[in-house]
Each structure stands twice: as structure tokens, then as C-alpha cells.
Design brief:
This protein is about 30% helix and about 25% strand. It has about 475 residues and is of the alpha/beta class. About 45% of the residues are buried. The structure holds cytidine-5'-monophosphate. The site of cytidine-5'-monophosphate has 13 residues, from helix 12 and strand 20.
């Protein structure tokens, strides 16, 4: 022992170099993804994203709550392998670094260039790469915050269940101490087979294992049943859920979303342009951050966020009933209510049981409307202490100054803690929003943010109010 660190090992040549264009338009190779770095001991070279890699720079639009996580995305030999490209894309869009790994059979179904092109990382397929300094499975396991296998075949599940380490994916799964997320894809008969059931049970005994599907539906052969891979969007959501730090654990939230529909007759109704995206984003982020979430949704085709209890309603009156039920008569069943739904202010005075006919010679009809209850104001006026915290929304069409004035008015009139003020044209139907948080403490202008990020900002404020941090 000399006390000197061992000499740096030479940088490996990347098996899959990528290129960018220089000022003259010539292709110049850039090192991709796995740049070597000595560890503290200098013994084993670790993998690290290359800060100059443009693919990675473009994908750094990350959700800060996943803390720039890294996922080893392992692809096995199934027809569903092509969907792994969408999984990679979804994770990258959320700012996650993706290290692609493929089994030998996966190459029969998906070209590695697809994954290397998307992720900006060389696809790792074997433990036997003489150019790679160190042990590939150990190096990837050290970098990955989760190992995601999508799709996972019956054969791979069997090998995992038996603790085999006969290829890079199984060796990686065996050495990793992080969550192992498995998205199976196979014929329903294979999934139902007693051998697969035994293998699933064996893997279930390990707390790190989480099954993402399979789901019921058509499979490649044309048959249908439980064996279809979960959709890439759901796999991405479940993976982000697992990676997100749970800073809202222990909090119970009720969130409303979407428009309401006020029926005139069985065919016609009054509604508004709310898409529900903001409320669904709030529910998704709150659940991912560990809160227990009840989402009360007006008519919306949006998918239910992972681990969220959804209550579908149609009218303002039905939403009011669902909100009171979720909060309890003494409002003690939730820590916060976030009313992001665009509740119809009015409903037809009468709802007809059959379709209203046009009358001969009639050139105009007068529709009588009646005022709906203001759910938020009702809760605000019933609340005795600071709980539940109340967050309202104010969507207006006027100038920022007027919007602020309306928001401050709502703060007092409805007795709420925070009003999220925004313009209809900046918000309705869009993926982003320009909002201000208005409270008795002042106004915080948040600028234009994706709705998921705005959701995190609103939840940060809520956490500060409820937990003091
Ligand atoms: O008064 P205004 O409709 O602009 O207030 C918007 C806020 O009040 C939103 O948070 C909305 O969900 C809530 N609201 C309600 N019940 C109504 C109308 C609005 O809870 N009938």
C-alpha cells in the first residue's frame, strides 16, 4: 500500500459513437453517454452522463422530484419490444436518464439503434465487452435508481425467479439493490401457466419487485386475455411514481378536476372548455409524492393517475355531494382540498326526462338557469380552523391586474388560503399554464410552466402551509 491512488484506466472507446455537425456541416463524433470516471477507490470505473451530449442536454427538462434519476431499461425478446422505445422516450421527457440494455433475443424485435438514438447512450447487450473497463452489470447497477424490464418474457421471468445470472439483464437484476420493475408481455396461457405463477410468486417474495401489469387485452397472436403489456404511458407513470421522493407522505388530499355537465335533457347539456389536465396533473404529482389522493372528476377522458382514487361525477350538485363525502361532515377526513374543477355556475332550472322538441314557428327559446351552489365557498364558510387547507382557482379573461383583483376577492369571499389565478386562454386545453399564487402573504407570479411543474409548485405551497417546510 503506497497511499497513492491507482492510475486512471484508459477511457473505453464507445461501441456506438454518435455525431454532431460542426460549423462546416461535417459530422464530428461525440462521446456518448457512458463516460468513465474513477470512483473514490479508483478500483472500478463508474458510468456517468456526458454533460456535452446534446441528446442528454435536450432531455434535461426533468421533474426535480425524481432528482435526475437513472433507469436501466432492459428489453427482452417479445413482440412488445417495439413499445420499449416509447417507454424510453417518456422517461427521457421526464428528465430521467435511461441506460438501455437488451437481451440477445430482443434484437430480433427491436433494432438497438432505436434505443441508442433515443437515449444517447450505447445499448448494453453483453457482459463480455473487452472495451468496457470494469464489470458491466455492477457498473450499471451502481448508476441505476431502478431496473425496469419492459417487456419481460416468461423465459426472463423464469430466469429471474431462479436467481440466474446468465446474461447482462439477469446479472444486473441480481446485483442491483434498487427496485425491480417488471412489465410482463406474453400469451395469456403462458402468464396463467402454473410454472409462471410459481415464478411470479418467487419474485414477489422479494420486496424490491413491483409488477407493472400485464393487462387484459389482445396479444400478438390475435388471442385476448391477461398477458398484454401495460401501455408505455402507464409504465412510465408507474416508474416515475416509484422514483419520486415521498415528501407528502401522510397527507390526505381531495382534488377536483375538469368541467361539470349540467343536463337540459337526455341529449343536451351545458358545460365549459376545461380539459381536466390541471387537476389530473395535481392528483398525479401529489400521489407520486406520497399523498393519499381522492380525485373527484367531472366528465373527462383522461386516464386515472397511478394510485389515485377516482370518483367520477357529472353535475355541480353531484360534485358537491362527492366533495362533502370525501371531506366528511366535520371536514376532518382531509388535510387539503384543491378545487381545480371549473364548476358550472348555473344549471338549467329544469332537467327534462325526454328530448325537448323544436316547436313549429319558434325562432328563439329562453332557457331558464338557476345558480349552482358554490362548493368552495360553502366549505370555506363551514371550516372552523386552518384544516383542511383550501386552494381555489380563478380563471378569467381580463388583464393580469383585473385577474389579481378577482383572485384577491375570491380569497376573502370564499375564505380560502390560496387562489391560483390564471387566464382562460393561457390554460384551457393546454399542456402548460401561466399562473400566479395569490394568498394573504402576497402574490407569487410563476410564469409559464408545464401543468405537471405548476402542480408541483402548488403542492410545494401546500406542503409549506401544512408541514411548515
Ligand atoms: O367564482 P369562481 O367560479 O371564479 O371561482 C372559482 C373557484 O371556485 C374554483 O376553485 C372552483 O372550483 C370553485 N367553484 C366552486 N363551486 C362553484 C363555482 C366555483 O367550488 N359553483
Amino acid at each position: 500500500m503506497t497511499g497513492q491512488p491507482p492510475p486512471r484506466r484508459p477511457a473505453p472507446t464507445s461501441p456506438l459513437p454518435s455525431f454532431h455537425l460542426d460549423a462546416e456541416g461535417r459530422g464530428v463524433p461525440v462521446p456518448v453517454g457512458l463516460a468513465p470516471r474513477p470512483t473514490g477507490s479508483g478500483e472500478i470505473l463508474e458510468l456517468e452522463p456526458d454533460p456535452e451530449d446534446q441528446t442528454q442536454v435536450a432531455s434535461r427538462k426533468h421533474l426535480e422530484y425524481t432528482r435526475r434519476s437513472t433507469v436501466a431499461l432492459c428489453v427482452a425478446g417479445s413482440i412488445a419490444a417495439y413499445k420499449a422505445a416509447e417507454v424510453a422516450r417518456g422517461l427521457l421527457e421526464a428528465g430521467v436518464r435511461v441506460i438501455p440494455v437488451m437481451t440477445q433475443a430482443a434484437e430480433e424485435f427491436l433494432g438497438p439503434s432505436t434505443l441508442s438514438g433515443l437515449t444517447g447512450e450505447p445499448v448494453r447487450k453483453t457482459m463480455w465487452d473487452p472495451n468496457f473497463p470494469g464489470e458491466m452489470h455492477v457498473a450499471i447497477a451502481r448508476q441505476a435508481d431502478a431496473v425496469l424490464i419492459a417487456p419481460a418474457t416468461a423465459d426472463l421471468i423464469s430466469r429471474l425467479a431462479h436467481g440466474r445470472a446468465d446474461d447482462l439483464v439477469t446479472a444486473l437484476a441480481l446485483v442491483s439493490e434498487k427496485p425491480l420493475l417488471i412489465a410482463p408481455a406474453m400469451h395469456p396461457s403462458m402468464w396463467a401457466h402454473p410454472a409462471t405463477r410459481r415464478n411470479v410468486a418467487a419474485l414477489d417474495a422479494d420486496a424490491r419487485t413491483e409488477w407493472l401489469g400485464p393487462v387484459d387485452g389482445p396479444v400478438a397472436s390475435g388471442d385476448s386475455g391477461l398477458g398484454r403489456m401495460m401501455s408505455p404511458a402507464q409504465i412510465v407513470e408507474a416508474t416515475l411514481f416509484r422514483l419520486t421522493s415521498k415528501d407528502l407522505a401522510g397527507l390526505k388530499l381531495v382534488i377536483t378536476a375538469g368541467p361539470t355537465a349540467e343536463d337540459l335533457d337526455p341529449v343536451r347539456y351545458l358545460t365549459n372548455r376545461s380539459s381536466g389536465k390541471m387537476g389530473f396533473a395535481l392528483a398525479r404529482r401529489a400521489a407520486a409524492r406520497g399523498a393519499t389522493v381522492t380525485l373527484i372528476a367531472g366528465p373527462s377522458g383522461l386516464p386515472t393517475p397511478h394510485r389515485v382514487k377516482r370518483v367520477d361525477v357529472r353535475s355541480a350538485i353531484a360534485m358537491r355531494g362527492a366533495v362533502w363525502q370525501a371531506l366528511g361532515p366535520d371536514l376532518s377526513m382531509a388535510d387539503a382540498l384543491i378545487m381545480s374543477a371549473a364548476v358550472s355556475d348555473f344549471r338549467p332550472a329544469e332537467t327534462h326526462a325526454s328530448k325537448q322538441k323544436k316547436k313549429k314557428g319558434e325562432s328563439a327559446v329562453h332557457l331558464e338557469l338557476t345558480l349552482n351552489p358554490d362548493i368552495l365557498a360553502e366549505i370555506g364558510h363551514s371550516r372552523q380552523g386552518p384544516r383542511p387547507m383550501l386552494v381555489g382557482f380563478a380563471v378569467e379573461t381580463d388583464s393580469d391586474e383585473k385577474i389579481l383583483g378577482y383572485a384577491q376577492g375570491k380569497l376573502a369571499d370564499k375564505r380560502v388560503d390560496v387562489v391560483v389565478a390564471n387566464r382562460a386562454s393561457d390554460s384551457f386545453g393546454r399542456g402548460d399554464n401561466r399562473a400566479m399564487l395569490v394568498s394573504s402573504a402576497g402574490v407569487e407570479a410563476l410564469g409559464v410552466l408545464p401543468k405537471e411543474t405548476l402542480a408541483d409548485r402548488i403542492l410545494d405551497r401546500m406542503r409549506l402551509n401544512l408541514l411548515g417546510k
